[in-house]
Write a structure and sequence with these properties.
It comes from Xiphorhynchus elegans. Keywords: Centromere, Chromatin regulator, Chromosome, Cytoplasm, Cytoskeleton, DNA replication, Kinetochore, Leucine-rich repeat, Nucleus, Repeat, Telomere, WD repeat. The chain is of the alpha+beta class and 671 residues long. Helices cover 16% and strands 32% of the residues. The longest helix has 26 residues, at 128-153.
């Protein structure tokens, strides 16, 4: 049993606290803690922790998914740390001490200086100037040497039309050669130099060779239709696909409309009974994929998956590549990778990876690009962003990441494209700003020019953003750590940096409040907004047009959200389990802290809500159905409790893609 419990964390908080989410300073020193005692699921609830003391313990490394997004000060003195690279998960870290860890060297100092862009003090010393040199001058020199090594010794070895095996072979040779032959700086830093050279070389190859296509699109004959595992490298997926360790042991689903169905079923029903009941439910589990694993590890059940979005359908005949021609293809992100998955077959079609990144959000747009002979053709472009504050732009059909935009100095929480201006991209960041970019259209040589058009100033971190469907070029909504806000984004106003125009009040017991975390936000139709707050069990549906007067004057005014209904949901106080909508089918989806998906069919309510005098539904609306997470087993052992971070359906509601906290993507298919 772990030494760390909720009660211990509350007791060791400075000052003592009654809620984990309120703790800002925590002293866990001198507790004989080992790495296994740091439970990521428990630490993920410390969302506002800024100072953490882990000194005088027995830690040999850090878990990769502690999820402390606001951590600024960390003390790890007098432990047994052997590696520091996991500290990159704390991007806001400003002060770090790890003295008297005998296995750490000068090379580790340089690694943390590179990984932590906000770090000012290391072991009590101001390292600002040296860190800037490491990140800029050192990186520039090494990048130049890596590029030159490729050009001189390897570029001509790769045929213009190359196979996956040829790419795999030359990549292996290049990585080995470049780490051996590229040297820079004193010998005392040789380990750091090799580490950076490998990182730079892998990024260089991803640009030069593009994304990787899994050529083995047919599933293995011996695989059950509900069994699937994919490791990080798509080219290795075909080799490893038989090594399935994640299998659903039960199919039984609760399809009651009662909220009581949220409790996990422990039925011992036999196979015949399970299959008979499965026919009655509206969706069945199709695939369970483990395709975002760190270091190709089958044991990685800690990488958090955050965002998924279905690829838009291009006009018939616009694309010859059949594997990405329909909305059966979904992009998912989490950890250091972005995957494209065929929902029907469960095949990981393509994969993009950045070794130092943790991706939080993906978004699609369709650009009309000039190809050879001056002909124009529509292509889907994928934007991906996360912890490094950089947006990667990926031309999927060409298997090529053609560029990046250094959008923010702090992590990007979410991104979305304008539905009317295909080159307009919004990025919402931990720097409390939402930026609007024109990403431009790449030419036939992939040259492009991005420009910043607008900056929206938020008073707290924006978590979710949504453009108002009836006026997507004029108003943007954002769910933030400190409330729900609206901005005027019309570009003819001239003012490039803008404060919010309105903040929305919501019911709080018997009064109204603006101060609450809004971690779920989406439009159900042109007018109905669905938002989820930090108030347990609370999802609101409210009217945009009746809440916000577009003719109102003045900025930063407070307006009351006109509530249409409340949805009954889990009573957990766990944050960041976001919601989504399927407007065409008038559905709302939200996952919970037990791996379940709550589904709400609201088609019988929307007509009444559309009336100018439509009344609020007095009772909370129960879920139409709750899809229960099946019992998955790893080598015979049941997986730990699963959080559903996100759940998204395709426009036709044929597939549901469920992203979890344990590195598993579940795909459900409508029966």
């Amino acid at each position: 049993m772990s030494k760390i419990t909720t009660e211990l964390l509350l007791e060791r908080a400075v000052p003592r606290s009654t809620r984990l989410r309120k703790i800002e300073t925590l002293n866990l020193s001198k507790l004989q803690l080992k790495t296994g005692d740091l439970d990521p699921r428990l630490f993920s609830r410390l969302r506002h922790l800024q100072k953490l003391d882990l000194s005088d313990n027995l830690l040999d490394k850090f878990p990769n998914s502690l999820t402390l997004p606001d951590l600024r000060v960390l003390n790890c003195n007098n432990n047994k740390l052997e590696d520091v690279t996991a500290l990159k998960q704390f991007p806001l870290l400003e002060e770090l001490t790890y003295e008297n860890n005998v296995y750490l060297t000068l090379n580790d100092d340089y690694k943390v200086m590179f990984l932590l862009e906000n770090l000012r003090l290391l072991n009590g010393k101001d390292i600002t100037k040296l860190a800037n040199h490491v990140r800029r001058v050192n990186s520039r020199k090494l990048t130049s040497k890596v590029t030159a090594h490729w050009e001189k010794f390897f570029r001509d070895q790769l045929p213009e039309k190359h196979t996956a095996e040829q790419v795999k072979s030359i990549k292996k040779k290049f990585l080995k050669s470049v780490q051996t032959n590229v040297v820079y700086g004193p010998s005392s830093l040789s380990e750091f130099t090799r580490w950076r050279v490998k990182m730079i070389a892998e990024e260089f190859l991803s640009y030069s060779l593009g994304l990787e296509l899994n050529s083995d699109t047919e599933p293995e004959e011996k695989m059950d239709e509900n069994e699937e595992e994919s490791t990080e490298s798509p080219r290795e997926a075909a080799e490893d696909v038989a090594q399935v360790t994640v299998t659903p042991s039960k199919r039984k689903r609760n399809h009651s409309k009662s909220g009581a169905g949220n409790k996990r079923s422990k039925s011992q029903a036999n196979t015949e009974e399970e299959e008979e009941e499965a026919e009655d439910v509206s969706a069945e589990p199709l695939h369970f994929l483990q395709c975002h694993s760190k270091g190709n590890s089958h044991e990685d059940f800690k990488t958090q998956l955050w965002s998924c979005v279905f690829e838009p359908v291009l006009d018939s005949g616009a694309r010859k590549d059949p594997i990405v021609s329909s909305s059966k293809t979904v992009a998912t992100c989490g950890g250091e990778s972005v995957c494209l998955i065929d929902c029907e077959t469960g095949t990981v079609l393509k994969k993009y990876k950045v070794a130092t990144e943790e991706f939080f959000s993906v978004a699609w747009t369709t650009l009309t690009m000039v190809i050879s002979d001056s002909r124009k053709k529509a292509h889907n472009i994928l934007a991906a962003a996360g912890r490094r504050g950089i947006v990667k732009l990926i031309h999927v059909a060409a298997d090529f990441c053609y560029g990046e935009i250094k959008a923010h100095k702090k992590p990007i929480a979410t991104v979305c494209f304008s539905p009317t201006q295909e080159t307009h991209l919004f990025t919402a960041s931990y720097d409390k700003r939402i930026a609007l970019w024109d990403i431009g259209i790449p030419d036939c040589d992939y040259n492009f020019k991005a420009s910043q058009l607008l900056v929206l100033e938020a008073v707290s971190i924006p978590l979710r953003i949504a453009l108002v469907p009836t006026c997507p070029e004029q108003y943007l909504l954002a769910g933030c750590e400190g409330g729900c806000f609206a901005w005027n984004i019309k570009l003819d106003k001239g003012q490039k940096s803008r404060p919010f125009e309105a903040i929305f009040q919501f019911p709080d017991d018997e009064s109204m409040t603006t101060s609450h975390r809004v971690d779920g936000l989406a439009f159900l139709n042109d007018d109905v907004v669905v938002s989820k707050s930090s108030k347990p069990g609370c999802i609101y549906l409210w009217s945009w047009s009746r809440s916000f007067d577009v003719k109102g004057k003045g900025c930063q005014r407070t307006v009351s959200a006109v509530i249409l209904a409340e949805l009954e949901w889990s009573t957990t106080d766990m944050s960041y389990l976001t919601l989504s909508t399927c407007p065409a089918k008038e559905y709302v989806f939200c996952g919970d802290e037990k791996g379940s998906v709550w589904m709400y069919n609201l088609s019988t309510y929307t007509t009444a809500w559309s009336s100018p005098k439509g009344k609020r539904s007095e009772r909370r609306i129960s879920p139409t159905q709750i899809l229960k997470w099946p019992e998955l087993r790893l080598n015979g052992e049941q997986l730990p409790e699963i959080l559903v971070n996100n759940v998204v359906s395709d426009p036709a509601l044929s597939y549901l893609v469920v992203l979890t906290s344990v590195n598993i993507t579940a795909i459900w298919k409508k029966s």
